[in-house]
Predict the structure.
Amino acid sequence: KNQVEQSPQSLIILEGKNCTLQCNYTVSPFSNLRWYKQDTGRGPVSLTIMTFSENTKSNGRYTATLDADTKQSSLHITASQLSDSASYICVVSASANEKLTFGTGTRLTIIP
Amino acid sequence: ETGVTQSPTHLIKTRGQQVTLRCSSQSGHNTVSWYQQALGQGPQFIFQYYREEENGRGNFPPRFSGLQFPNYSSELNVNALELDDSALYLCASNSPGINEQYFGPGTRLTVT
């Protein structure tokens, strides 16, 4: 069964600090891995997409890494801002037809 | 903004009733997927439509049905509503072969 697990479930950090979110997956065959940011009650917004051959991708203060051998990914947020408070969801696609397996997300809270 | 719109934004229904949710895809996108997201959980895949035909279905009963129209807008219909159907319903559109799904803001359905 295809699964995506994320850790931690929730995280609270001070504004300006860095943090790293983790994602492990057992999706096969692997097509791509995405990180989404979801504000409460809103739709997810894509941060990064990585294919098998990519092991890092950045989008401003967000940097995602992918180890396809160990089936692990991380999302690193640098110099956090209050607006970073959201759920971060790891999503893995098993094929090119875009059927996605979602993790349950990490709830990140940035405090002043 | 992703260019994907959903209506209504919020909806309250009574158990046993029927509901129709609507989604307008981003221009040029002929594939739409629907997801159910319970509070604190990741989105769960309901089904996908490609050029007006169902193109895959998740583990949801037949009372969840859909339509896609020639202009690629879409509907999700749920019959005989149950309390557990209370969730955020998301639609996402993409063009085949492009590794990107664009999510709408969602419809919050509450069943009482």
Q: What stands out?
A: The two ends of chain B are 31 Å apart (CA to CA). Chain B has no helices and eleven strands.
